[in-house]
Amino acid sequence: MKLILKILLTAAAVVILANILPGIHVQDYTSAIFVAIVLGVLRITVKPLLIIFTLPVTVLTLGLFLLVINAIIIMLAGNFVSGFVVDGFWWALLFSLLLSFLQSVFYSLLGENKEN
């Protein structure tokens, strides 16, 4: 049940950010739900591979290259979901930062216990 709630909260964050940022476009709420699902799958599968392949650069930049990896994940989601368009790398970078912030705010509202 929490997984479905997290997907819906992420979709809500995607819709909110698409209305705020002019470089991010979401066709409808269904597309936002698909974006949330695709982002989850890409973060589980592709992101660890990118981190391993770019480990020297990530260490050299003291972890700041992880922001670039997050932007790449957002752009990949834009390629996979037809109703989600990202206008460029910098919009993807800003979107990933704001999405992470909104997700942390929304997930804190869930009241998850960190001990479990």
TrEMBL record:
It comes from Lutibacter agarilyticus. This is Putative membrane protein. The chain crosses the membrane at residues 28-46, 53-77, 89-110. Pfam families: Phage_holin_4_2. Keywords: Membrane, Transmembrane, Transmembrane helix.
